[in-house]
Design a protein that fits this description.
Layout (H helix, E strand, L loop, with lengths): L4 E7 L3 E8 L4 E10 L6 H15 L5 E5 L3 E2 L2 E2 L14 H9 L6 E5 H12 L8 E7 L3 E7 L2 E3 L8 E2 L2 E2 L1 H4 L1 H6 L4 H19 L3 E5 L19 E3 L6 H12 L4
Parallel strand pairs: 1-4, 4-7, 8-13, 13-14
Antiparallel strand pairs: 1-2, 2-3, 5-6, 8-9, 9-10, 11-12
Length: about 250
């Protein structure tokens, strides 16, 4: 019988969030558990928090985990907004050991890829046609690109150079907070970033997500670019939902 529930954990630069997910609906079951990302955010410290979240939830099945990193075959190859000790870490093995699971019970994914997979499956059907780029605005900027619903894994378009700067250093949601920018001021930066990106990949659709998507009415209408922009239907829970699905279905990249 196909599993209808899964557990996903989304590791971010500021918080680690986990929840039980109804995979038939693509929705959280109950409240999500959130714990601040430890400082320093070493692999061992983060693994302790992930174990605490699964323990609080009483979940003993497969676990999907996202990282703000390029993840290939369970190994982290970059570290954006987490400790650089993650680079080269076999995250599959780390979490399997810490959670007392088999390696096959852990699914590791890039955080934006997980969010994008959830949006493609449970979000607006228009996203399944043509080239769709999901962008998560949080501590950094994550990207996930799809061609007719099929993921091109581990794109790092949050780090393209825009006007001499790494894009996320100017347009991430954390920058808005750190520099005390108004929504119009920040939207201008996002607009500039999206205009550069759309000229590189010519997408048919942008989906914007991350924590700031909850306030999308304050900034999305201010964007003035060629490509249509919609807001992630799962908002900041998309990564959790995508991770849970990946764990149950054994998806890794």
């Amino acid at each position: 019988m196909e599993a209808t529930r899964g557990f996903g954990i989304d590791i971010g630069g500021s918080g680690i969030k986990g929840a039980l997910v109804d995979l038939a609906q693509g929705q959280l079951i109950g409240d999500r558990i959130r714990i601040d990302t430890p400082k320093p955010s070493t692999p061992e410290a983060v693994a302790d928090v992930v174990a605490e979240i699964t323990g609080q939830a009483g979940w003993d099945g497969p676990v999907g985990v996202t990282l703000p990193a390029v993840v290939k075959k369970g190994v982290a190859h970059t570290a954006a907004n987490i400790d650089h000790k993650w680079i080269g870490t076999d995250a599959d093995a780390l979490f399997a050991k810490r959670l007392g699971r088999g390696v096959d019970d852990i699914a590791m994914l890039n955080d934006a890829d997980a969010a994008g997979m959830a949006e493609i499956r449970w979000g607006d059907p228009i996203a399944r046609r043509g080239v769709t780029a999901l962008l998560t605005f949080g501590t950094g900027i994550g990207s996930a690109v799809f061609q007719d619903g099929k993921l091109v894994p581990n794109t790092e378009f949050g780090h393209i150079e825009v006007d001499g700067f790494d894009a996320e250093k100017k347009a991430a949601a954390s920058v808005k907070d750190n520099e005390d920018l108004s929504y119009p001021e920040w939207a201008e930066r996002v607009n500039r970033y999206l205009s550069v990106l759309e000229n590189l990949i010519w997408p048919d659709l942008f989906i914007v997500g991350g924590g700031v998507s909850k306030k999308s009415h304050k900034w999305v209408p201010l964007l003035d670019i060629r490509t249509p922009v919609i807001v992630a239907s799962l908002q900041n829970n998309a990564g959790i939902v995508g991770a849970a699905a990946a764990a149950v279905e054994g998806i890794e990249h």
